[in-house]
Amino acid sequence: MIDNRSVIIIDQTIREGMQYRGLVFSADERMKILDFQEALGVDISQSAYPPAHESESSKVKKLCFKRESCKYNIHIAALSRAPVDDVKQMAECGLTDFHLHTTATSELLKKQSINDIFTSLKQAVQFIRSNVTGSSIEVSLLDIGKTDLDILEKCAKYLINRLSIDILSLPDTSGIMSPDQFFKRVKYISEIAKGEKTRIGVHCHNDMGMATANTIMGVMAGASVIGVSALGIGERNGIGDLYISAKCLKDKGYNLNLKIDDIDLFREYYKYIDKICYEKTGFRLLNYNTPFFGEAMLTHVAGTHATGNFGLFSKEEYFLNLLCGKNLVRKYLKKNKIEYKEDDLKRIVTKIKAMFALSVEFLKSLFFSISYQYSKILLKVIHINCSKDLIIFFHT
Ligand SMILES: [Zn+2]
């Protein structure tokens, strides 16, 4: 009987990350990513797509060798389509965890019958079971948001009841589903898997910014395997985020092997992925506004936020604008070691508010006449950094 309160993490940073525009992970980079994943307690690393190119096979072979020689607990998986020729290539890499994908969208069913799809899956599963000892098989039914429910049900019954695969993954490949739609569909299929050997997995794309939320809703609906990646890296704008998905599930009482309390190591892992991505593509994944790990997480601006314990972090960083209040300004002045008299605080707050209210139009008109570039720099200093000297100047 599957314990649905235990959630298996498939870190797809490497395989899905390779679908990020312009990115190819080298063998050394994959080794280092595997070290991070092992240290963080990831269950399965999905780390190659062998049929795509021989280099993928050789890289995943190296990972399997490293796993053996370092006696790592993490499992190494790779992805391919279901035809036996593809699966053979996977087996030659020394893998035991086979992740296959197929699709039964109405578009595809115009070209291929459902029975052909089932035959191909059956042959793949039989080949793996008779050639690889201790194998684990996951099958992803691509794009459940674009697959008719009756077809989805038929496929799920075949894979769960007839082939008894280990994981049936239900991906929102197009990233078009809202959390309630995703929940309903995953719940419907999860009912078929009740009492069976097959676990239900989810893998959600982020086209509508819902990937992490959908991942969590998938688990609430009955899934017990999640496919996620560091910083959500993946095709288009990516998939569910590894850390945030895991943190939300842990907070809800699910059991995970992932060491979500080791935030420093997670940060190091995320910075490493961000560095590789930036070097190869010129794009940053870890930016100021990134959930949880971005620096914006440490800023407070509204007066109300200076009086309570808002946000995730206890570290206090205050920034001024016209939304400030006495509490926030007091904290700001103290932190920046600016001397003031408590009796003057109200007056100081009024001046700061006036300064910010005026600053946009007034300073623009004042400095545009001097230099456009200079005015932009000055506005940034006032609005973002809000220099100590400037505040002293305005409040005295
Ligand atoms: Zn994907």
Structure explained in plain terms:
The protein is an alpha/beta fold and 396 residues long. It folds into two domains: 8-281, Alpha-Beta Barrel (TIM Barrel); 295-395, no CATH class. Helices cover 48% and strands 12% of the residues. It has 15 helices and ten strands. The strands form two sheets. It has an eight-stranded parallel beta barrel with strand order 1-2-3-4-5-6-7-8, surrounded by seven helices. Helix 4 runs parallel beside helix 6, helix 8 packs parallel to helix 9 (211-220) and helix 9 runs parallel beside helix 10. The longest helix has 24 residues, at 345-368. The chain is elongated, with a radius of gyration of 26 Å. The model has no long low-confidence stretch (mean pLDDT 90). Zinc ion is lined by residues 16, 173, 203, 205, 234-235, 239. Zinc ion binds next to loops.
